[in-house]
Design brief:
By secondary structure, this protein is mainly alpha-helical. It is 60% helix and 0% strand.
């Protein structure tokens, strides 16, 4: 597996979601935020993503060469290794997300993502470059410990980027379908609760793509405390 598919899949997915947002939006969203969000996304792509991808790829190659990690000690078929890699790295990202909210230095980086005053596909690329670098180091360590194969790591990186676009999409999903999907998959409506301007909502719905972790670790929330998106507003004086 190479990087070539991602060069076509991710821009095409972004364009498709942007069109879907125009046709069936879940709520009104201001497009004036797009230049800032896209500039941050481009900066991460140009300045960080090369290193962020090189880290996990290098970690997978090193683990394979040294027979390091759990999967390198097991004789599993390739499909099983790939499935376990995606599931367990998704769980690792859930844990990272919770840690970023709880650690002061982590929140100092991650709050830029939550500072977006609205919620759409561009929110999915709005991250601090420092957060991307921290994520690279963390994922690399997880990959070595797991002994994840190189092809599965490349698949996960594509899954990670595509999932971030999908879960932030401002697309209306029929309520009955949304409720059914939430049992296994993080929907945009489920993740939008995490972006609520009400601080207590920030500590719920951390899941990246697999909804199981929020249900399993009691961080799931069904509805937001209010309609506003962004950072919690300080209380008014008086």
């Amino acid at each position: 597996m190479t990087l070539t598919p991602a060069l076509f899949i991710l821009p095409a997915l972004f364009a498709a979601l942007a069109l879907a947002e125009a046709w069936v939006p879940a709520r009104a969203a201001a497009r004036g935020r797009w230049p800032v969000n896209l500039a941050l996304g481009a900066a991460n792509l140009l300045l960080v993503r090369t290193l962020a991808l090189a880290g996990p790829v290098a970690a997978a190659a090193w683990a394979a060469g040294h027979r390091w990690g759990v999967l390198n000690q097991l004789a599993l078929p390739g499909w099983a290794e790939a499935l376990l890699t995606v599931i367990l790295l998704d769980l690792a990202i859930y844990g990272q997300h919770r840690a970023l909210h709880r650690m002061p230095w982590g929140w100092a980086l991650h709050r830029l993502h939550h500072a977006d005053g609205d919620f759409d596909v561009t929110t999915g690329v709005r991250f601090h470059p420092g957060e991307a670098l921290v994520s690279m180091l963390y994922k690399s360590a997880c990959i070595v410990a797991l002994g994840a194969p190189l092809a599965a790591v490349m698949l996960f990186e594509l899954y990670l980027a595509a999932g971030s676009l999908c879960e932030h999409a401002n697309v209306r999903v029929p309520p009955r379908l949304d409720r059914a999907l939430r049992r296994v998959w993080v929907t945009p409506a489920m993740h939008r609760i995490h972006h609520s301007a009400h601080g207590q909502d920030h500590n719920h719905n951390y899941g990246f793509a697999i909804a199981l972790w929020d249900h399993l670790f009691a961080t799931y929330r069904e509805v937001a405390s209010g309609p506003n998106i962004g950072l919690p507003q300080p209380p008014r004086a008086g």
